[in-house]
Amino acid sequence: MTTTPFTEPPKKRLGQHFLHERGIISKIVQAVDPQPGDRLVEIGPGQGAITFPLLERHHELTVIEFDRDLIAPLTEAAQSRGTLHVIHSDVLQVDFTALAAGGTIRLVGNLPYNLSSPILFHALDHAAVVRDMHFMLQKEVVDRMAAGPGSKVYGRLGVMLQAYCRVTPLFNVPPGAFNPPPKVDSAVVRLVPRPDSEITVIDRALFARVVRDAFGQRRKTLRNALSNVCDAEAIAAAGIDPQHRAEQVPVEGFIALANLLARNGA
Ligand code: SAM
Q1: 204-263: what fold?
Q2: Which of 149, 168, 178, 227 has an alpha carbon 20 to 30 Å from 233's alpha carbon atom?
Q3: Does this model's pTM top 0.85?
Q4: Which residue of 22, 52, 67 sits with most ligand 1 atoms within 8 Å of its CB, as the best mutation to test the pocket?
């Protein structure tokens, strides 16, 4: 095994918290469980904490890293371990559909926490080519992603993700597993995009607008929160009580309402 030639200190502005806890790293690799033929893509490989164990097991991996200082050390440290394709870019500029080249990709990453929502929505935009995702995020974000109606943390993120993916929180990770330790607890989550046959949303932009407005002022009743989108009759026609608040409505309720509006040409 080569000694890794990483010399730069972690950069806070890039959300660099490098994993060092071996037990957690192997749990992530086990959760991903790469199979022959899989095209693995890691977002933010950093100093290779997850990259090198994945590469040793799977022999080929693509990584997307924004930090210029990490590109040469990553490439060098990978040489004895397998084939590492390094893309030096902001992940939000990477076209996952082009990267999949007609097949599918599996995304992995201990994400920069300041960018987790944009990265999740970017991945959703390419969900048709993403087979699954295993991401380390703030635990609080994972809780929001997986929450259901009635929960205090049920909101826009959970509804939008659950409409298009199965969301499964896997395990929690304490701050001490990272260098430097973040101020918050973390968690690993699995997202599996639903097949087209399971996605019932007719107009994605309209669905996104209904969900955004409904949770925009979550203390308001739906009839008030959605007054720019539809009237109380439409809400009732979708099987939802217009006096309810967004946090009481299941994902299917928002889909039913957006679909009703789409059919009525809203
Ligand atoms: N995977 C490594 C680990 O677990 O130790 C590093 C994880 S660290 C939390 C996040 C990584 O994402 C850093 O390497 C950082 O440079 C990289 N990063 C930050 N912003 C990025 C962006 N916009 N696109 C791609 N990578 C980014």
Answers
A1: Helicase, Ruva Protein; domain 3 (1.10.8)
A2: 149
A3: yes
A4: 67
